[in-house]
Amino acid sequence: MDKNIKKQSAFISEEESTIDWNEIQNAFKKTFGAEIYNSWLQKVTLVKEFNDYLILGVPTRFFRDWIVSRYLDKILEQVKQFKLSLNRIEFKIIEENKVNQELLKVSDLNKVTEIKDSILNYNRLNPNLNFDSFVQGKSNDIALSYSKKVCEHLSRYNPLYICGGVGLGKTHLLNAIGLELQGDNNVMFISAERFMYHFIKSIKKNDMVNFKDFFRKSSVFIIDDIQFLSGKESLQEEFFHTFNSLMDKGSQIIISADRAPIKLDRVQERIKSRLAGGLLVDIELPDLELKIKIIKKKIEEIQNQFKEQINLSDDVITFIAIECKTNVRELIGVLNRVVAFTRVHNKTLDISDCKKILKDVFNQIKVVTVDKIQNVVSNFFNISLSEMLSQRRSRPLARPRQIAMYLAKKMTTRSLPEIGRRFANRDHTTVIHAVKTIGRLSEQDDEMKKNIMQIKSILLEQ
Q1: CA quadruple 302, 307, 311, 315: dihedral positive or negative?
Q2: Domain definitions of the chain by residue range
């Protein structure tokens, strides 16, 4: 009986509501800006108010997933200003069936032109990113070889999946394939982010029929950065059906991502299975020999373009190649900086000059990821990663887990919901509790403070 009374008292009726949703919406508009507010938050409604949490209504699963992954932390922070007792937000999809019915309506077929023109404006193939301008080395020769084979034998390697870190040449290869095939084929080259943009736009305009027709008529479908689909359920659903339709008609599909299909986070298993069903090729970090070749190739391009002589000694070129340890994009950026300095000061640089010019680049803080934090913390406390991520709440496991969450919040740009998902799909409120707990203990407990400092040191050294 007492439990029922408590449950009833926890809910607040509209008449007793302590928050004004219109005021909160106005605060959203000021905090997030008119563009984000009009696109995403304007359609969020207050469904129920409880003492410690709110249930908000959204029109589709896609809206919910997008808002949770990007704006939930700030939304919670904003509503807490109107009611301090609130500590979480839940979402309810209240118009999804209505929206799905509207999407089935066939609208003006001429609207496909708008999609086509927009894609042409944002996704033109770059004539400079061809096979001739791609510098080959041990780290990318397999990816280059199969990219060329796809152009010779369509649908033999289907899909072709090229994976590798940022700035290693994936987009260059995709672009080169598109250039090679566009003469005799209907080539569609688009980024996953742009695919999502047209998906959302078509939903808003009730024009999904033309969206489906447009993307499924290509004979060569090239999509870049597929990891962008992570967590976007509605978009994944559409991509899955687009993928199957293209495969059924024999179209060649080429995909790039920053990791292998099996490692794609929050992507449907059936999509991972199809992506892994073709040919998977990996581009690794360039070795010293390849980096030197890339620098010399870029210098040659600059000299041909600007009709000027660039005088960099082999020692300077080797120094730049050794010190740039991340990717080709950083390598080119560093080279451009050095070349600009030689132009302004009209002098031939030595290694000492380069060290002064590039000290801020080569001394920058290393990138720390949630995966890296989890591995370092589990090794530091001599427990397995699976134990640390498990649901067990014993102190020897719970405390390292909280420390890892605390460091993930302090040392990465991931949101609280994202961090929670990386820790076996825990709620963001669990992460908030961990951050507060470890923050307090690190101020009060010398041993805890020492452990945090040591782990941070390990993370920044690796």
Answers
A1: positive
A2: 2-98, 126-283, 288-362, 370-461
Distance set, CA 238 to CA 80, 194, 203, 213, 235 (Å): 36, 14, 12, 12, 5
pTM of the model: 0.57
Q: How many CB atoms lie within 10 A of CB 259?
A: 14
CATH number at 370-461: 1.10.1750.10
Tally Cβ neighbours within 10 Å of residue 146: 18
Closest CA to 417 of 65, 68, 41: 68
72-80 and 61-70 are packed helices; what angle lies between their axes, rounded to 10 degrees?
80
Helix (H, G, I), strand (E, B) or coil at 50: strand
| pLDDT, tens only, 272-300 | 999 988 899 999 888 888 898 988 888 88
Peptide bond into 159 cis (omega under 30): yes
CATH topology classification for 288-362: Helicase, Ruva Protein; domain 3 (1.10.8)
220 backbone dihedrals φ, ψ, rounded to 5°: -135, 115
Cα–Cα nearest to 324, from 357, 352, 296, 361: 361
**CATH class, range 126-283:** alpha beta
Closest CA to 190 of 241, 260, 116, 262: 116
Burial 400-416, CB ≥16 within 10 A → b, else e = bbbbbbbbbbebbebbb
Is 2-98 a domain of CATH 3.40.50.300?
no
Question: pLDDT tier at 256 (50, 70, 90 boundaries)?
Answer: very high
> In terms of pLDDT, which residue wins out, 235 or 69?
235
Asked if the model's pLDDT at residue 117 lies above 60, the reply is no
